[in-house]
Design brief:
Layout lengths: L1 E9 L2 E9 L2 H22 L7 H8 L5 E2 L2 H16 L9 H6 L12 H8 L7 E4 L4 E4 L12 H15 L4 E6 L3 E6 L7 E6 L1 H9 L6 H5 L2 E7 L2 E7 L5 E3 L2 E3 L3 E2 L4 E2 L5 E6 L2 H14 L4 H5 L6 E7 L6 E6 L9
Antiparallel strand pairs: 1-2, 2-6, 3-5, 4-5, 6-7, 7-10, 8-9, 10-15, 11-12, 13-14, 15-16, 16-17
Amino acid sequence: MNTVTLARHAMATRFEIVLHGEDETALRAVGEEALDEIERLDAQLSFYNPHSQISRLNARAAREAVQIEPRLFSLLKRAGELHAEFGGAFDITIAPLMKVWGLAGGTGRVPTDEELEAALAKVGMRHVLLDETCRTVRFARPGVLLDLGAIGKGYALEEAAELLRDAEIESAFIHGGTSTAYAVGAPPDAEAWKVAIEHPRFSERAMLDPASVTEEERAQSTLTTLALRDEGISVSAIWGKGFQSQDRTYGHVLDPRAGRPTEGAALAAVTSPSATDTDAMATGLLTLGSAGMAAVERQGAGIRALVAERGEGPGGFAFHTFGISLPRDIV
């Protein structure tokens, strides 16, 4: 049994893929093809690439109906469905808010109330008109902008995994950064791939004061470990790309309903046969907190979820789960 490991930079992160099989040359070829597909989707979906299909859509759709290719239309339709399921807590029209908060390629800033109100007026899937018959997209008002950053990575991983399956790969694991991954089959020596979720207490300290975290604490940082087989996982947290202003820390995940950094939860994790869905659902669940569990459960079979809210539990967090068991000393 051979193992091939490949990596590629795309979607502003590092994608890595591990493949197991008998033919090393064939594994390497199909692995490169899967990474090529991720790069292709990055070029199509990027908010920052002026030549991407999303950028062209953003530039034209307020003036005219824009026809798009079938898979992208299906992705936008699914994004609209998940937006409705999560009561607007997941929203691909969030770009005006990201810009006004200085989070669209910037270092962050606190907007004025007037700026926030103007941005919020351009946010909401009610502004995105999808015509299934003609496969077109039209914006209901100027200033609407689509940003697929909270669903695109999961979609790219899911498409890459489908390509691996079509090539009859039975054992592979592919991830984009530390937030989303997809497991194909299982490793040769196990029944499933194992993914550890870090305790939010450790994540917070590691971001705010990395030097204060001891090696012993690092070794004990795992909250739980999930077994994955033919399914995706996404983990969303409030830490990572935030900024500070006047002695206050602002997170990088915005609540599209209120227009401000989310305060619903500290961490959310979701598994599903669809990595497209896990990417979006983890964002929605982080924004809603435990109140979003009902929306997750409605998505059907094979869904598991975990959300950590600040509370009185061990380490200052309260945990809510669906289909996931946590150690007794944490619960």
